[in-house]
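During the reporting period the student researcher (J.K.) took over the structure-prediction task from the postdoctoral fellow and processed the backlog of single-chain submissions. One of the processed entries is reproduced below for the supervisory committee.
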Amino acid sequence: MTRKSAAPGSRKVQRVQTGVRLEKRLLKVLKGLAEYHDMTLGDLLEGIVLHAFEGKAPFSEENLERIKDLKKIYELDLTCEDSHKLTEI
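J.K. obtained the following structure tokens:
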């Protein structure tokens, strides 16, 4: 396996493995979006969180359309209104 060379302006960080649990369909949409952009799920999540920490929207209009398509494919009907209200079956 070849290692990607660092992009100009890249910053070195230390990453750790985590055991985060996510709703199944939500994870499928995130994985689909990461795959579409040829990036890892971790890279996608880091980008979303870093944008959110600064109060910035993480997705362009084009990406929001892609997400809408993936939500249909994976039957994800959850919205931000459902946040913090989910319970496991």
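The committee noted the following: The two ends are 39 Å apart (CA to CA).
J.K. will present the remaining backlog at the next meeting.
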